[in-house]
Amino acid sequence: MAYTVTWRVVGPDERTVETDAFPEAFGRHEDAVAFILDKLSAFPSLGFDRGRGFWARTAPDRRIETRFSIAEVPAYSDAVPRA
């Protein structure tokens, strides 16, 4: 299996404003988590919402969030590229 990371910007009413996936594929779940943590490291307000299953960073005004999720996908080749 391989893992991909998606992100979406969510407004205060839980409405998705924008969404996309990063092109990298990860061979291990831990590598995908490390990728997300690296993306989040520049922001002061972040965390993992265990109940809803995503990592997020909050904008300074706390009106929007950028949320990151990991999805398991079938490996598309014998060698899964690692980011």
Can you tell me about this structure?
It is a single chain. The chain contains one helix and five strands; from the N terminus they run ββαβββ. The chain is mainly β and 83 residues long. It has a five-stranded antiparallel beta sheet with strand order 2-1-5-4-3. A hairpin with a 6-residue loop joins strand 4 and strand 5 (65-73). The mean pLDDT is 79.
Tell me briefly what this model is.
14% of the residues lie in helices and 40% in strands. It has one helix and five strands, in the order ββαβββ. The chain is globular.
Cα separation of the termini: 15 Å
**How are helices and strands ordered from N to C?**
EEHEEE
Structural class: mainly beta
Kindly report the average pLDDT value: 79
Strand content: 35-45%
Helix content: 10-25%
Q: Please work out how many helical segments DSSP would assign.
A: 1
What does the largest sheet look like? Answer: 5 strands, antiparallel
What's the count of strands?
5
- State the strand order across the main sheet: 2-1-5-4-3
Shape: globular
Rg value:
13 Å
Which segments are poorly predicted (pLDDT under 50) over 5 or more consecutive residues? none
